[in-house]
Amino acid sequence: MMKPEEVLAAIAAARGGAICVPTMTTGPAWRKLAPGDLSVGCVGFMGGAAAMGLGLALGAPDRRVIVFDGDGSLLMQLGSLATIAGAAPRNFTHLLFKNGVYHTSGSQETPGGPGVDFAAMAKAAGYRNAYTITSLDEFTKRLPGFLGEDGPIMVQLITGLAESTPMTAGPSTPFHQQVADLRARITGAR
Amino acid sequence: MPESVPSSLIIDAFKEIFQAERRGNARQDPLGWIISVPDTHQKTVLAALDKERSLRVITCSTEDDANAVAAGLYMTGEPVIVMIQHAGLYASVNTIRGISMDGKVPIFYMIGLLQREKDRDPKDSRHSMVRFAEPLLDVFGIPHARMEGPDDVKLIPEYYRKSRERSGPAAVLVGLETA
Q: In angstroms, what separates the C-alpha of B118 from chain A's closest C-alpha?
């Protein structure tokens, strides 16, 4: 089973100038790997990471946007798959960290459990491509392709639990500050 | 008595807002973004927007999506207007709180009051969807005004500006179905 922290470390090494949108249990680990960069966490509106990533991708077509979604999170706003497919951003990579539980709230099983196939859902919604990856070695080898291929694409990652959650990690930068910082970085960079 | 507002007036107001936002900006295409969840009350505007080459419309599955897409576009410096219905306001309260209020993302909303009776103030409506929209906005401290006829189109740029000035949400409620 892949460790989320190892997956994130591989992304940090390969992302280049991509904008990243972590949510829930990917948040604390990503903060350590990439503090103060082109990232904004989905904090306080669970389920909205992919749609926020869509807005970023449409507004910054010259950059890749990578969303680090969770299975429980995506289930809260599953219609965003169709919203994203309809808008068809070519620079959009949707990584779905699938651990089968709501880790942050005490690891209750997600509806449907591990049998829910988000890659199949994304493809059926109209994503250009969708893949399922079960090993870090395979993910690392294919990551440059995932970040260069025309989107929207989804990569469903079968992972274990993260070492910390937003509830066990220390306080993070408030969302409004993350928004202001990212806007300044993106618009200042033009 | 309230009157319907022609879609052309509303779209002209959108364009003027976006032109002002784009002044001096290298990026001019699209002129601006309309993020919508289809609203029966504003359907003539949505139909007319389909023919507008300078504006890009993103149709969302839910109002939660619409708010998050608008936030993403805002972070890239793009000008955005969100068009929803009162039912969508109710459906997306947590996202509005999280993104536009706590996140201080200036989002301007056009909110259709579907089923609003022409001869009644919304607070006296027989329909709870109509009655509760303005009180809900008041609870959240969201500035709002009701567009009751062509002369009120000026509320659109006024409340768009309010959203920018306060770095948060502001809304114009569409009193009658647009023409």
A: 34
